[in-house]
Model the fold of this input.
Amino acid sequence: MNVGHFPPPKRRGLIVHGAIILVLTIIAVVAFINLSRADVGPAFLISLLALLLSFAPIPFLAYRAYSLWRADYHMDRDSLAINWGLRVEDIPLTDIEWMRPAEDLTNPLVLPSMPLPGGLLGVRRHPDLGVVEFLASDVHKLLLIATAKRVFAISPENPAALTQTFARATEMGSLSPAEAKSVYPSFVVTQAWESGLARYLWLTALFLNLGLFIWASLIIPSTPRIALGPQFVGSALETVPSSQLIIFPVASLLLSVVGWIAGLYFYRWERERVLAFIVWGSSMLTSLLFLLAVLFIITTPI
Done:
């Protein structure tokens, strides 16, 4: 029997996640522009909070969209593989106890938190089934896969076809014993943390960003105005409110978060781990350059 691919429905989920990311990005950009122009006061704090709160979910939603785009369920005579972003579950067919639609349950499933279209992810406990892990995109096409460890809720585009393929594969028997495999996104972080170089780059970038935030917060109340922007020889020195210094720690933090996530993406493969260290090193260097930029600005005589 050939390998059968049964991907989940993706279009609606990708559209929803893309629209939310676009709206949050627009809010973050507008808040960043307002932050760079506001004086210290309520407008400044509102712009800062709007920027942080709108940007914080973007990496999370971007990962969910990427996971949905790459999501797939595929089955052969030996195993059923569930791929959802960095989450991988390889289940030997001999470990599958039964497979049935979720609509057959007497007690309905409780959906995980943030049940957006294209992102039904998480773990719930069911009174009859025990632990149920959701790796699905469509609540109307949920198919339950029971193993001795837990029950998986998936959503192939054609649940009936996957069920029939499982029945045929079970009748034909396994060609070779398959080993169960579970990979979680946290495994990549844990694996990278074991590297001394990765820990050094992460912690250095973290302390640079914390130091930059603390330093800027101390400078802003004590220094009314600063020289920011291009200055030309012979022209009058142009100054701006010191509150605009907050641009530097905010931009440094945002770039560091993006760099950290991008590095984790490359770290998954042994042959591309050097790219992960390059990205993390670049993030650390960028934070250092922002710190030096603030030092240069406050030492410029007005």
